[in-house]
Amino acid sequence: MKPARIHGKRTASPEDRLARRLLSIGRAARVHAVLCVAESAAMCERVKAGSGKLRLLAASASRKACRDLAGQGFETLLLPLRFISRFKQAQYAVAMALQKGRVSPGERLVCSVGSSQARGEFILVLEVGQESSSLALQELVKSADDVSLPVIEAAIDVACEIARAARRGKRLGAIFVLGDSASVLDGSRQLVPNPFQNLALQERSLLSPSIRDLLVELAKLDGAFVARQDGVIETAGAFLVASPADVRVPQGLGTRHLTAAAITARTRTTAVVVSATDGHIRVFKRGELVMHVDPVSL
Predict the structure, then answer these.
(1) Spatial contact of 236 and 189, defined as CB atoms under 8 Å apart
(2) Per-residue model confidence as pLDDT tens digits over 272-293
(3) C-alpha to C-alpha distance for 228 and 214, rounded to whole angstroms
(4) Residues of 44-61 as b/e, b for ≥16 C-beta within 10 angstroms?
(5) Could you tell me which CATH number the domain at 5-137 has?
(6) What is the pLDDT of residues 20-50, one digit of tens each?
(7) Are 264 and 176 in contact (CB under 8 A)?
(8) CA separation (Å) from 66 to 71, 138, 233?
């Protein structure tokens, strides 16, 4: 995309302005590298043009953007998780860069997330610490009331297995509602007999690997999985009582996502949703979408 011209003069695009400011802040802060977290290659290309000797890293949830940028000499990172919060997305990108050995503890980075054209300028100067690899998910857990990190991770893992499974070529959809199960079940009703009713606690825990195949099979049923904060599943096939009138989800998302947003707005829960349309996983908290997961990348 070429910058526009007004009365014969070239005007800077929002990406041009953000790239110049990013590099100016980076040089003033004496950073070791620039990290661009983007959905497309456009912003990163503008940073490269003025970067000089600064090391360039690019992180994206888009496979195409990663391929394009790798061909231009960027060190690239494919991000399986996409946090809706740009601050958390920056944390997560740094965590991935640390895990992959692209940055080292003690290094200083200047980081931009997304496009200034879409949601305003967002630039951070971050110093990489030994603990950075767990910061992003810990931030999610802080907003997840009493649901522990292992339970959230287990629910996302199971959701990915469901997303990869297919029935006659069709994707499966599912909802896992974690925590505050008494409030969730209050007023809800069973669409099918509860398959977990007579199972021992250890036999119906999300943390148990032996239950994964059963959960994938049960995802073929209508209704939601409801689990306690410790990961013990109370029921499957539940019809959730939640009014979606006061919540909004991104355009293109359907009834499952509206239900997940509504139930997390009404209760102290975290909801993990598998989309039967695109096969992706989305996490809701307090009525809002907080994370987007590509099951193939993960």
Answers:
(1) no
(2) 999 998 899 999 998 989 888 8
(3) 18
(4) bbbbbeebeebbbbbbbb
(5) 3.40.1380.20
(6) 888 999 999 999 999 988 877 777 888 888 8
(7) no
(8) 9, 26, 38
pLDDT digits 0-9 by tens, 215-249? 999 999 889 999 999 999 999 999 998 777 678 88
Instruction: Please state the φ and ψ torsions of residue 16, each to the nearest 5 degrees.
Output: -60, -45
| CA distance between the termini of the chain | 31
The arrangement of secondary structure in 143-293, i.e. its CATH architecture, is 3-Layer(aba) Sandwich (3.40)
Domain boundaries, the chain: 5-137, 143-293
Distance, CA of 89 to CA of 290 (rounded, Å)? 10
